[in-house]
Amino acid sequence: MELYHKSTCHFLGKLIIALTWGILCLRAAECIEYEALSCRKHTALLTDFGGKGDGKTSNTEAFRKAIHELSKFATDGGAQLIVPPGKWLTGPFNLTSKFTLYIHQDAVLLVSQDEAEWDLIPPLPSYGIGRDNPGPRFISFIFGTNLTDVVITGGNGTIDGQGQLWWTKFRQGQMKNTRPYMIEIMFSDHVQISNLTLINSPSWNVHPIYSSFVIINGLTILAPFHAPNTDGIDPDSCSNTRIEDCYIVSGDDCIAVKSGYDEYGIAFGMPTKHLIIRNLTCISPSSAVIALGSEMSGGIQDVRAENIGAIGSESGLRIKTAIGRGAYVKDVFVRGMTLQTMKYTFWITGDYGAHPDDHYDRKAIPVIQGINIKDTVAKNVTIAGKLAGIDGDTFNGICLSNVAIEMSQQANQLPWNCSNIKGVSSQVTPQPCALLPHKKIDCPFPTDTLPVDNIQFQTCAAATTMH
Ligand SMILES: *[C@@H]1O[C@H](CO)[C@@H](O)[C@H](O)[C@H]1NC(C)=O
Ligand SMILES: *[C@@H]1O[C@H](CO)[C@@H](O)[C@H](O)[C@H]1NC(C)=O
Ligand SMILES: *[C@@H]1O[C@H](CO)[C@@H](O)[C@H](O)[C@H]1NC(C)=O
Ligand SMILES: *[C@@H]1O[C@H](CO)[C@@H](O)[C@H](O)[C@H]1NC(C)=O
Ligand SMILES: *[C@@H]1O[C@H](CO)[C@@H](O)[C@H](O)[C@H]1NC(C)=O
Ligand SMILES: *[C@@H]1O[C@H](CO)[C@@H](O)[C@H](O)[C@H]1NC(C)=O
Ligand SMILES: *[C@@H]1O[C@H](CO)[C@@H](O)[C@H](O)[C@H]1NC(C)=O
């Protein structure tokens, strides 16, 4: 059986790069090109494994069988699975190494609402408990663990989480287990998630955890404002992560940087570090554009965010922590935020509360040190900054420079409210609180290049119909 159209498109791909690709790709009719960390030698279509894109037939077995078969090519150039145009109803499935899942621009994955299709897996070790309920959690829709070199991409193809049923059950207190996430990759390296539209996730959308060299770009993530916990992207205990060119409208934080929960996160001890966030556009009426925490018990260090745009969001940069979290948030650099209609521009909370259980260490005091924000414009803002450290635990090294905040006409509170913090400010309007005295300074932003920024994409190709 001609399952794997190995050579044609690969060969074509190379020619395409070398020559003008118009005529060639016309001749191949269904040849697509995309950018990825690595290209694959073998190609298969979901239909090769009995997939039916009619929006009704379950494709769970087709996906699982396809990936199981294609995993055999991991030591022979890897494989790509193409999801052709159509509506593909499916339950969750696991990815494999040296593998690409490509979702065609006219393909929609419809996520199964049938709980019986979802395996239960243990809580994350750095969290100790499930988020919705203490016990096990449903596996994520697209799940991968202990992988290397895995790509999930498409020509802006769609994954529809069909979350409504899960949101309702959650709100009515009917979830016995934690709701699934849309995409979760654990203990992996060289992971790419790009050029997809994710809508209506049951809960968080993209959750890379305990992983390194993670590149996330070109995602459009949409969820209704009322949809609970529909965070956009949650880099969690990851190092060297790059998030670029994403557009997120959601019912929770657009980006929430995390690293584990109280005593479980402290024991696991895996920080999120070397994180780049660029060219983000966010609308998040009830949450943050970029949040750090509240789960940060493995530590968060070296976050570099730039060119961030948001409208109609609750806060621009948010830090959430509490006694019991321990660890640190340090060396955070933000430049180039453009914000419109915000409740808070900056919001730092040292009393976030919310503990996994009552066994947290009352002496585990978080260290917040080196929060640098510059070149920011915010309009129609209710509170310029609420910056609250913890009694006996001053949040240090806060630096604001070249920040212009226009207060809304309805704003009747003092623009700044600061306590237990220490820092400086330069060219900031309205005039900051006394705990951020003026000092002539341009807050720092690192000039070195992180290893994840050196990763280059290759141009890959694949046929999307059978010959
Ligand atoms: C994503 O799509 C954009 C626009 O079509 C394209 O320029 C970019 O190369 C794609 N990126 C990847 C990683 O495929
Ligand atoms: C996917 O991986 C998880 C964790 O390793 C496992 O529990 C589950 O059974 C796997 N699912 C399938 C369909 O193989
Ligand atoms: C995955 O990697 C983690 C961390 O290295 C390890 O503890 C775990 O046993 C591995 N799991 C599997 C299924 O190999
Ligand atoms: C991807 O699709 C979404 C939803 O249809 C759309 O809003 C967005 O503009 C598209 N992105 C690109 C790069 O085409
Ligand atoms: C991302 O932002 C940089 C400037 O920070 C800009 O040069 C670049 O064009 C932007 N990319 C996109 C795709 O908007
Ligand atoms: C300003 O913000 C208020 C909410 O605080 C909103 O109702 C109003 O529409 C915004 N005005 C503009 C011009 O964006
Ligand atoms: C400032 O914040 C504290 C809590 O951190 C609150 O008790 C106080 O009322 C606030 N002050 C003003 C003027 O809003």
Descriptors:
30 strands; 22-stranded parallel beta sheet; Pectate Lyase C-like; binds 2-acetamido-2-deoxy-beta-D-glucopyranose; four-stranded parallel beta sheet; mainly beta; 467 residues
Provide an overview of this structure.
This protein has 467 residues and is mostly beta strands. It has a domain at 253-436: Pectate Lyase C-like (3 Solenoid). 10% of the residues lie in helices and 45% in strands. It is built from five helices and 30 strands. The protein has helices at residues 6-18, 21-27, 60-70, 164-171, 262-268, and strands at 31-36, 42-45, 54-58, 79-83, 86-90, 93-94, 99-103, 107-111, 120-121, 137-138, 142-145, 148-154, 157-160, 183-186, 189-194, 196-199, 206-209, 212-217, 220-222, 239-249, 255-257, 272-283, 288-292, 300-320, 328-349, 367-388, 395-407, 416-419, 421-429, 458-463. The strands form four sheets. The chain has a 22-stranded parallel β-sheet that branches. The chain has a four-stranded parallel β-sheet with strand order 6-11-14-17. The chain has a two-stranded antiparallel sheet with strand order 1-30. The longest helix is centred in the first third of the chain and has 13 residues, at 6-18. The protein is globular and about 65 Å long. The model is unreliable at 1-28 (pLDDT under 50). Residues 388, 413-414, 417, 419 line the site of one 2-acetamido-2-deoxy-beta-D-glucopyranose.
